[in-house]
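hey so u asked for the seq, here:
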Amino acid sequence: MQSFLGFEKSIAELEGKMEELRHLNDIGDIKIADEVSTLRDRIERTLQQTYSKLSSWQKVQVARHPNRPHCVDYIEGLVDDFTPLAGDRAFSEDAAIMGGLGRFRGRSVVVIGQEKGNDTETRVKHNFGMARPEGYRKAIRLMDLAQRFNIPIVTFVDTPGAYPGLGAEERGQAEAIARSIEKCLGLTVPIVSVVIGEGGSGGAIAIAAANRVLMMEYAIYSVISPEGCASILWRSADHAEEAAEALKMTAEDLLAFGVIDSIIPEPLGAAHRGAPEAIRAVGDAVEENLRELDGQDGAVLRSHRRERFLTLGNDALTA
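ran it, structure tokens below
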């Protein structure tokens, strides 16, 4: 069942009318099939008009859409013979971060991603994509595995941020995130990261310190959520819309700043309306970037990755 966002009211009304018509037979001179076709064209035009002028806050809503494809969908659609690996070999398993080995379009890869879940049961199981320290330590273990066998890494980023609970802090949340970033920067195998939904703070960059960072067209990537930013600056989450604009968290903003390398176009009306097309587009982009990184010396890959992240923002500071 399609879930509509607040700014999609006109689209919801048109799709409701089309669904009603589909259950009717021809009436007199009115051909229902023709009416449905006309409505479908109107819906397509309305989607184009609506999605061509989304504000930053509206893009935040799209990035969080419950029907948007998640990490598990990309793994199922793109990775053959996927073998999940669990646990950090120190404390426990963390379902917020998925990872394992598989074959992506003919090549072996290590896949790491944050999974939010798509209903109440799976969201609770995956802690809404908010990893605890053991999740990041599991990611480190998988990165070590990739390094040992010289296998490229593909990561799917989709988290509102690392879990801020007391237990996570007691077990070294900040240290685990820092270690994960450090591990990314020290590897000599190619890393390609894709922000498929939300890229929230250190919880995201812990698995996104990559040679190539790609973003879905309506994904977001920022140092803090708009609500969190508004709570700090305005002492009220009611200013989240203003914060979203100020944070410059959209794919277009981040491409202009050089934070990401490219934007992956989404189907008309965003990925939640065309999951198969969105997954295929991500696969094509990942394949292209892995191919470009093929054959590069490991030391060069590592040096490029470090240089990229250690110099981010320098241009803005000197401007």
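The chain has 15 helices and eight strands. The beta strands are 79-84, 97-104, 107-114, 153-159, 191-200, 212-216, 220-222, 262-264.
lmk if thats what u needed
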